[in-house]
Specification:
globular; 2 domains; Nucleotidyltransferase, domain 5; 5-stranded mixed β-sheet
């Protein structure tokens, strides 16, 4: 079978990224222009600023990705780009560039759901990984349990009813003075703390989640006791959130009877969460975690997901539009 080269484009938030991936699993290039230093000043991502920076960077990032991959634009079999979910202005930049490239090269356009991309990051990290499996998707914008039946066949078993887990991390970090991005900073501070503060855990029926309650509890506690030990507060928050997560994961394992658990999304880089998942690798359960560099937004994961869409005939035309609230 002839090799298939997919050029992936990701611009759903504050990373301008382009990658070339061969056969859905082998990264030839993965270029990321991050805007974190720009948005740190504001304590979070400013959508208008993100969009303008994507416009400034997208062409140079794409050229660098092709150069690093050591191939020609014409060797690409298809152009895959994120069309949702995400910030609508940011999405439109990558999508518009992808559509223009598809038209100019006369190559198929493949729209990719950003969440599907995060799942596909594991196919790059683990060349042997194949569906079916349970995916624990956890990021700044999404938290859900997904029954991955096949490469393009997904069933959402449960999702957050309010804040995503990463959103809770970021809001807590901002209130206690850690700044943006919050997740890595809480993770680092928690390493020096003890989880000795009792925090309320929200229990929701079924496999859905709710993280707004614990986020609010931590914020209120900090306002009430501004001199509270931040290391202990971070460790306690991290443990409570992970306990809530693990409770639902164990229920999902029983419900669909799977032996493979796959982590995905930026929060899957959290060191405490990764260690807790390693503990359930018993009784035939195998846990897969993406490389840390593939946990956060990147275009290699979009190219990988695009490959599986492409070979399964999921091709789009140039009327494809950004869908900021796209569901899996």
């Amino acid at each position: 079978m002839e090799d298939v080269y997919i050029l992936g484009i990701e611009s759903s938030c504050d990373e301008t990224a382009v990658s070339v991936v061969k056969n859905g699993r082998i990264i030839l290039s993965n270029v990321i222009n991050t805007q974190i230093p720009i948005h740190t000043v504001y304590g979070g991502v400013v959508p208008e600023i993100a969009s303008r920076n994507h416009i400034d960077n997208i062409s140079d990032v794409a050229k660098k990705a092709i150069e690093d991959a050591n191939i020609d634009f014409n060797r690409i079999n298809a152009v895959a780009c994120t069309y949702g979910p995400g910030l609508v202005g940011a999405l439109l930049v990558g999508l518009s560039y992808g559509k223009a490239l598809s038209y100019a090269l006369n190559k198929p356009l493949v729209g990719v759901n950003h969440i599907q991309g995060h799942i596909a990051a594991n196919y790059i990290t683990y060349p042997e990984l194949k569906p079916p499996f349970l995916c624990v998707m956890m990021s700044g914008g999404n938290t859900q349990l997904v029954n991955v039946k096949d490469y393009t066949d997904f069933e959402v078993l449960g999702r957050t009813k309010d804040d995503a887990i990463g959103e809770a991390f970021d809001k807590v970090a901002r209130v206690i003075g850690l700044g943006y991005p919050g997740g890595p900073k809480i993770d680092k501070m928690a390493l020096n703390g003890q989880a000795n503060i009792e925090l309320p855990k929200t229990h929701v029926d079924g496999l859905d989640f709710s993280f707004s309650g614990i986020k609010t509890a931590v914020i209120n506690l900090h306002h009430k006791e501004p001199d509270i030990n931040k290391e202990n507060l971070c460790a306690s928050f991290e443990k409570a959130v992970t306990d809530m997560l693990m409770e639902k994961v164990k229920l999902a394992i029983q419900k669909i009877n799977v032996s493979k658990i796959v982590l995905a999304g930026g929060v899957s880089a959290n060191s405490y969460i990764r260690k807790e998942f390693e503990k359930i690798e018993t009784n035939g359960i195998k846990v897969y975690m993406p490389d840390l560099k593939l946990c956060t937004d990147n275009a290699a994961m979009i190219a990988s997901a695009g490959y599986y869409n492409f070979i399964n005939g999921k091709i789009d035309d140039l009327t494809l539009n950004a869908v900021p609230n796209l569901k899996l």
